Amino acid sequence: MYVLGIESSCDETSAAIVRMDETSREICANIVASQIDTHRLYGGVVPEIASRAHVEAVSRITYEALETAKLSLSDIGAVAVTTHPGLIGALLVGVNFAKSLAFSHGIPLVSVNHIHAHVAAAYLSEPLLRPPYLALVVSGGHTSLYHVRDEITFEEIGATRDDAAGEAFDKIGRVIGLPYPGGAALDKLAYEGDPKAFSLPSPAIAGDELAFSFSGLKTAALNLINSTTQRGETINRADLAASYTATIVRAIEKKVDQALTQTGEKTLVMAGGVAANSHLRASLTRLCAKRGVKLIAPPLALCGDNGAMVAAAGYFEFMAGRLSDTSLNASACDIMAGE
Question: Are 170 and 31 part of one and the same domain?
Answer without folding.
Answer: no
